[in-house]
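ok so i was messing around last nite and threw this chain in just to see what happens. nothing serious, just curious
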Amino acid sequence: MLILPIVGLFIAFGNVFGNGNLAEYLPLLHHPIIQNFGQLIAKSAVAILANLALVFAVGIPIGLATRDKGYAAVTFIIFINAMNITLKLQGKLVPAAEMRPAGQGMVLGVQVLEMGVFAGILIGAFAGYLFNRYSSKQFNGVMAIYSGHCFVTILAIPSAILLGFIMSAVWPYAQHGISALALAHWPLRLKALDRLG
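result:
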């Protein structure tokens, strides 16, 4: 994940050139070409931060899997779609304007519960474990074509569907717990800020 500080530098660099407020102090930055150039850099780089769950889902298996690393990330796509379908079947998907208060968001164009980076870490670690544990499994005869990474994929697909289903039920409780914890500590933070001010 050493790429994240580099992405941050590009976002900062783009913001320097694309920030209209700085143009008051440096008239050169007011030129539309420079403004557009800055926005192009910043908004392109910020896409990495917007998709951190995917970055972790891909990066963790690459770090953990000892072989066939290219197959380890497909679990994430299945997971988010399983969660979306579960929420849809339960009638829990909300309109776009209500997603944030309902704890939902868009991941790769799929409406799911907002798990953030945790989804990527969970699926990435799970996929890496499956590959390390079962990618050396070999079958004989007709079943030989389902050996190795194919066997892991056979295990990963239903496992990701099951995880998507389970997290659809479990994660709202985690969200409420996180919110309650944040709100419980908020008055303490305000008092600390008052003392500093």
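not much to say yet. The helical segments are 3-18, 32-50, 52-64, 74-89, 117-134, 149-196.
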